[in-house]
Amino acid sequence: MCETIAAGEVADGDSAVVAGEVADGDSTVVAKKPAKKKYGLVRRTIRGFDKLDTAYIEPQRYTYTVMMQMTHSYERYTLRASGRHAQSMTFAPDINMKVGPYFGWKWFFAGYTFDLKHLSLNDIKQEFDFSVYSSQIGFDLFYRRTGSEYKLRNAHLGDNIDVSSLDGVPFDGVKAGITGFNLYYIFNHGRFSYPAAFAQSTRQKVSCGSWMAGIGYTKHSIGLDYDRLQHLIDDRLGANTVALDSGLMFNSVRYYDFSLSGGYAYNWVFAHNWLFGASIQAALGHKRSVGDVDGTNSEGFSFRNVNIDGIGRFGLVYNNMRWYAGASVILHTYNYRKSRFSTNDTFGSLNIYSGYNFGLKKKYRKKKQ
Fold this sequence. Notes:
By secondary structure, the protein is mostly beta strands. The protein has 4 helices and 20 strands. It has a 16-stranded antiparallel beta sheet that branches. The chain has a two-stranded antiparallel ribbon with strand order 1-2. A hairpin with a 2-residue loop joins strand 6 (96-105) and strand 7 (108-111). The chain is elongated.
C-alpha cells in the first residue's frame, strides 16, 4: 500500500524530549517533559482530521494560497429506449472553457470562473462546485443547470437507418440539471494525502495509497421536447422515415440517487516535488424516479432499482510548497436502467492551474529563525 520508510528515520519536523538527570554540583536536577497541551473536544476533533505521519506527508507550511485556474467542462446525456428499434440519443454541448481566480485558507478553497464563450448574463447555464479536503475526510457539493446549446451526438434510430445528417446538429429542446454531494472517508489518512493531489494543501513525500468509502446523494432532472425532436428528425431524414420510440416520448423525468461507494486511491511520487494521483470509486446507487409521459404522470415510467455509478479523479502536480502547478481530471457517471427506458449521465472537468502559497505559519517562522 505504501513505500516503506527505513527504521531509524525521523519524520521532518519531529523532535523528542527525553527525561534525564543533569549534574549540578552535589545536587541532581531532573529534566521534565513539557506538559501536553489540552484541547477541547471540538478542537481535538478538527485537529484529528489532519493528523499526519510526517515521514510520508509534509504538512502545509503556509496559511493562505492564491491560484489561477482554467477549467474545461464536459457533460453528456444518453437516452435509450428499449423498444423494438432500440433507439438511443446522445446530447452534449461543445466543451466550454472558463478562467478565474481562487483563494484558499487552510482546508477551504473557493473561487469564481468566467465562461469565456458566454459572458452574457442572459445565458441560463449555471455551475457551482465546492470541495473540502482534509487528510481524513472529503466533501464535494455540486449544482449544475445546463444552457440551451446541446447538440445531437451518436444517434441510433434503428437498423439500416443513416443518421449521419443528425450528427452535431444543435438542439435546444433538452434541459438537464444535477444537484448533489459526496462525502467520503480515507482509511490510510496518516500516510496517504488526498489533498496533495487535488488541493495542494500538503505534499506527499513517499508513494502511498488508501482504501476509501463514502455516501452520496444526487437529484437529476431531464426535460425533453420530443415533438421538436421528431420535427428535427423529419426535417433531416425526411417525413415519415422514422418515428420516435414511445420510450423516448416523455416531457420530463426526475430521479433521486442515494449511494454507497468504495474505492482505492494512490499517490505516486515519481520525482522530487512531483506527484501523480489517481482514485476510482464505484457506487451502488438506489434510484427513485418520477416521470411525466406525454403530459401525464405514468406509474409505468416510475422505477425503484439499484445501478452502478462511478467517480474517477486523476491529478498531476508539481509542488515545492511555495509554488505549485498542475492539472486534474474529475469525472462522474450515473446510470439508471429499466425495461422500458435508460439513461447515462456523465459530467466532469479538466482543470489546469498554477498558484502561490503565502503566510508562513508561526511554528515554521520560529524554525526558520
